Amino acid sequence: MNPLKGNSSNVKHKYDEGKLNYLLNLISIKCEENNIYINNDGLFNGKSGVSLFYFYYYSHTKSEKYFNLGSKLILEILEDLNRGKLVTPYLSNGLCGIVWCIDHLFEKGYLSDPAENIFGVKLYDSLTNIAIESLSLNNYDYSHGALGIMAYLNARGKDVSPILRKIIDNSNSIGNEVFWNPIIFSPALPHKKDLTLAHGNAGVLAVLLQLLEKTKEKKMLREIIKASSNYLLRGINRNSNVDLIFPDYVTNEYRNEHGINMQLSWCTGDLGILYTLHKALNILNEDKENEKIMALLEKCAFKRHEIGSGSPDLFFCHGCIGHAHIFNRLYRETRHSLFFTASEYWLNHISESKLNSSIYKNQINSDLPNSMKLGLINGISGIGLSLILLMSPESAIRHFGEMFLL
To answer: Sorted alphabetically, which Pfam families does this protein's record hold (predicted)?
Structure first.
């Protein structure tokens, strides 16, 4: 059932592809100018992610130049690993993200071999063991922990039941709710209950939703998904005078100190959590609860950048292109024009900036690692890849969305 059926439209809205292609050309130039400075091989902040942009841009433009640039980065990554370069095992900056990138490019027909042929079948056993060890330390982080590994293995059709058993064993139950207490990386936040998509309970729920499509234990998993959804639903703010829907990631209070961009962020904001709940409740056929979530998503669609608060963050993790991407997903699912308008609004911030806004200049000239300036979640290749996906068919977005729990 579509809770927004009465508001949907038969009109198919389209973005200004001329503007998007102009931005893509700028991004390709800036990536190429700075390729030599990328010092991270990972998916979210390094060469793997930038290579994805190049290969997708090759498909978009049919220019062999971008196929060659993407291929060059993949070869550099493999050379680094063959020389014994140390990487973390996780999704964001480590081995899991690298092999997921390689498998994705193989499935798209850009590479001749999957990761299994390159690294051997023991790769999967090693990643499974690392995920279980990480869960023993309460590391449920998607970007930097066990959940990203689990999502990758599940996407490859591997047996993730040992990891799932550990997740279930580690869960906490109160009444009809189930939740997890992820490790908090900052010692300043020891008592925080993390509800977020990239680092906390919404991320656990999102990965469980991916597992549901392939598991034989559907009844058991649906019960856990229902209980996890109940826990997140209880976290919704009931005070209409307060702008935040879920507790702030840092303060754990319903007090906004970080601006609209953080409220709507994919990683830790309201939008990422709400989208995950919407997916879960839709699968569970909980129409009444989903109507409430869709009303909150509509509220998010009306949010606008605060005048006088400086240039908005442009990037995927907690910036304009991430907002635009999620609202586009909602528009494609519901055909509700409000979500298209919201997506277009955040895209216009990027278009108007011409990638010369102060936030972009500050990041390019900052002391941040060079890879982050070009990467998928905090850099310009993520803007570029998302722009291409906005012009792509649903199948392309859904395939790519696995990596971002969308």
So the answer is: LANC_like (PF05147)
